Amino acid sequence: MSKEDYYKVNKTMSKDKELNKEEESLKENLEETIDQAIDEVEGENDTKDAKEEKEELSETDKLKQEVEKEKDKFLRLFAEFENYKRRTSKERVELFKTAGQDVMVSMLPVLDDFDRALKEIEKSDDENLFKGVELISNKLRETLKNKGLEPMAVKAGDKFDADLHEAITQIPAPEKKLKGKIVDVVEKGYTLGEKIIRYPKVVTGK
Predict the structure, then answer these.
(1) Lowest CB count within 10 Å: 35, 130, 163, 184, which one?
(2) What is the per-residue pLDDT across 1-24, written as a single tens digit (0 to 9) for each?
(3) Where do the record's region annotations for Disordered lie (predicted)?
């Protein structure tokens, strides 16, 4: 091999080495660029996922708030409905009581008539008549009792109470112990349930 050929071969090899270096450099630059692009894409995806997750959480919070509002509204409506039921139920009971009271009050004179009739018949000798009228009277009283009507237990000698008795007159007490007390019961009093529908009319001693 001549010197000239040797130089040519060396020059060619040098050029090949330079080309290889350039290729490696380009390859490294390309790989670096690709890695950067991948990192950027992954970063964007992570940001997007985080944003979507945040939006999803925010939407969940909104839904929770709406549910709480609806729950509160439902509880308020339920409370109002319960109050309405109690109120109407109470009004209905009061209506029935009032209607029943009117009937009971209208029956009281009939009971008074039975009391007077029994006192008069008792003076006669007709025992069967007395028993018959007494039987009817007791049956009527028992029927009214089942509806809540009760006679008030008031008798001579009881202490007079203006909240429970109606004094129609006052007379000198026949006995010292009857001063300020009931001397006689002129008309019976009656209660319907816990309510007094007619106060007993009494005579008091002074």
Answers:
(1) 163
(2) 544 544 444 444 454 555 456 556
(3) 1-63
What is the separation, in whole angstroms, between the first and last Cα of the chain? 168
User: HSE of 122 in the Cβ direction (CA atoms, 13 Å)?
Assistant: 7
User: 97-133 b/e with 16+ CB inside 10 Å = b?
Assistant: eeebbeebeebbeebeebeebeeebeeeeeeeebeeb
Which H helix or E strand runs over 47?
Answer: helix 3-123
pTM score:
0.52
- CA dist 172 and 176 (Å) reads 9
pLDDT by residue (tens digit) across 150-170? Answer: 999 999 889 999 899 999 999
Of 137, 152, 155, 140, residue with least CA distance to 194:
152
Which domain, by its residues, includes 204? 150-206
Q: How many domains is the chain partitioned into structurally?
A: 1
Planar angle of CA 22, 27, 28, nearest 5 degrees: 100
